[in-house]
Amino acid sequence: MQFQPKTEKEIAESRLLPKGEYDFEIIDAEETTSAAGNEMIELKVRVSNGDGIARMLTDYLLARRPAKLRNCCAACGVLDKYESGVVSDDDFPGKRGRLKLGIEKKRGYPDRNVVADYLVTAPLAV
Question: How high does pLDDT run on average in the chain?
Answer without folding.
Answer: 90
